[in-house]
Amino acid sequence: MSDLWKSVLSGVEQAIPPEQFSTWFSGTELISVDDQIATIGVPNVFKIKQLEVKYSKVLHDAFKQNQTELKEIKYIVQTNSRPKVKPRDLPPAQVAGTVSSPRVSSAPSAFQTGLNNRYTLDNFVIGSNNDLAVSIARNIVDKPGVGYNPFFLYGGPGLGKTHLVQAIGNELLRKDPKLKIHYTPTSSFYSDFIKSIQNKKGDEFHQKFKQLDVLIIDDFQMIVGKEASQVEFFDIFNELYGLNKQIIVTSDRLPSQIKTVDERLASRLTMTGAYDLQLPQFEDKCAILKAKAEFNGVQIEDAAIEYLAENVRTNIRDLEGEFNRLLAVADLKGMTPLAVINEGYVNTSKNPQSKAISSRQIVEKVAKYYQLTPKEMCSKSRVAHIKNARQVAMYMLSKELGMSTPKIAMEVGVKDHTTVMHGIKKIEGDLKLNFGLRDDLAALREKIYG
User: Could you tell me the pLDDT band of residue 202, with boundaries at 50, 70 and 90?
Assistant: First the structure.
């Protein structure tokens, strides 16, 4: 069975990009082939959906190349390697969007890494909001200092940036315990640098970083106004980069959007691109909650998971907070999670993010954000900035309220619903590379639900 699976994976690997292969097929196992039905084990529930939707044909073709014609492929989550633990026995999750694990590094480094060994790629739930970043993370683990150096990870709070970059460090350390890896928040880098200057140990501080194989700097936006620290970091960056050492930096925004950041440094940090973690979509949130419930060994109805995914619209940290609160109340009341929701003991509408919003409010908020009146934005004007604002309003009416395209057309003053479809697709396409537009949408959601 294992030989067949190796041959199938070899065929798949030749058919898709290497980053996709390492992201979606790592940790998979062929369990059985019986009556033209293959059963494949996967490490988490989200991979099941991705494999079914994106890679079904690739897998069928790969099996066929190995003289195995299939009618169906089934997937099951492999849980034997993961102990079932009650939620109260687990240490609390420290980073949103993750499933806490009590795993301890088998070969800890004597070097002070600053890494939390609970953060791994295995317990980072992959979704459409983060799959590109995870693919790059795996590439770095395979080839540190080569393709994506520096790796600049960008995104709002509570989306799992800290987990992902620390997971890279932990995976690299697992492969080579001799590596000198150091993780530090920017605030700690700044305070340690100031202390070294006060104690006349600046050279010692610099030397500590110069010897690293991997440097991970978190929350780079905190460097605002700290010119001396910026100069020191730039010097360290140049030395490590010149030695092909891996540099990983996270921020809640692009370097070019951080006031007082030197243009040369901003350019260096994003020379291989800037990659972000986006807000999770409904399906992503459901997958995160199902993975969390699976790991914690708790039973929760799909309807309860969908309720949370629909009503918590801020970030993954808040989503997991509501999940934990629901389970706590269910345990206290001796009820099922869905019964707790139906009885009104847990109501996410208490959160301002979940209050009822009308289509008119969204139109008004979008118009005001782009410094227009609703009448101007909903006019027939083809002026670029007005047209862009109108398309953003179309997109938000669709995504936030689930309105049909004919109703959206009436709301924004266009006659043809196909114009709405085009506008929504335009925004969806721009979001892939336009970080400024992503910031606009995040800011608008705060204004709408705040």
Answer: confident
29-49: pLDDT as tens digits = 899 999 899 999 887 666 777
**Beta carbons within 10 angstroms of residue 65's beta carbon:** 15
181 vs 215: CA distance, rounded Å: 6
* 275 phi, psi to nearest 5 deg: -120, 135
Nearest Cα to Cα of residue 83 among 63, 69, 99: 99
Tell me: the pLDDT tens digits for 298-336?
889 999 998 898 888 778 888 888 999 999 999 888 999
The DSSP output letter for 220 is G
Residues 74 and 99 sit within 8 Å (Cβ to Cβ): no
Distance in angstroms (rounded) separating the CA atoms of residues 42 and 432: 28
Amino acid at 292: K
Please state the φ and ψ torsions of residue 50, each to the nearest 5 degrees: -65, -45
Angle (CA) 132-62-65 rounded to 5° is 155
For the entire predicted model, the pTM comes to 0.63
Q: Given a cut of 60, is residue 94 above it in pLDDT? A: no
At 226, is the secondary structure helix, strand, or coil?
coil
Tokens of 315: 């970030």
Query: Closest by alpha carbon to 40, among 52, 28, 50, 49?
Result: 28
Comparing C-alpha atoms, which of 164, 157, 109, 106 is closest to residue 132? 164
Distance CA 317, CA 97 (A): 6
**Distance between CA atoms of residues 332 and 359, nearest Å:** 39
Q: Residue 274's beta-bridge partner residues?
A: 152
